[in-house]
Amino acid sequence: RLTMKVELCFFSQIKIHPGHGKRYSRADGKSYYFLSRKAESLFLQRKNPRKIAWTVYYRRKMKKGIETEVTKRRARKVVKLQRAIGDMSKEDMMKKRNEKSDFRKVQREQAVRAAKDAAKANKAKAKSNAKKGNKAVKQPQVKVPKNQGRGKR
Length: 153
Description:
Order of helices and strands: EEEEHHHH
Distance between the termini: 82 Å
Number of helices: 4
Strand order of the largest sheet: 1-2
Largest sheet: 2 strands, antiparallel
Number of strands: 4
Helix content: 25-40%
């Protein structure tokens, strides 16, 4: 099977079969293939092929000859995933979600009350230790001027 060398017109982007068209070579060494004298003339007049109605560039720009059988893409349904957060598992999260807000409020108040009671107990314990004379002796800190104490740099 023999294949033909098919070129594209530089101006119009139309196929040029062997034995047709014209090659134009500039002084800088760049060469262009044109389908016809009309395409070459418009190129030499520096016309924009996107504004010339019969060129492929124009037809692409104005969306001519394209089948309008474009189907809308269906958006995928978003699947919600529940993952464990930190040390809380998915089951714990679902349990918390299903609890009533009043129940959570009562739980929070109990936790706060328990924390306060523990703090009171610690304070009372510290006071009793202070009365007994089991004071922890603090070492006095020696103040060092800011510009000293850094050593060699």
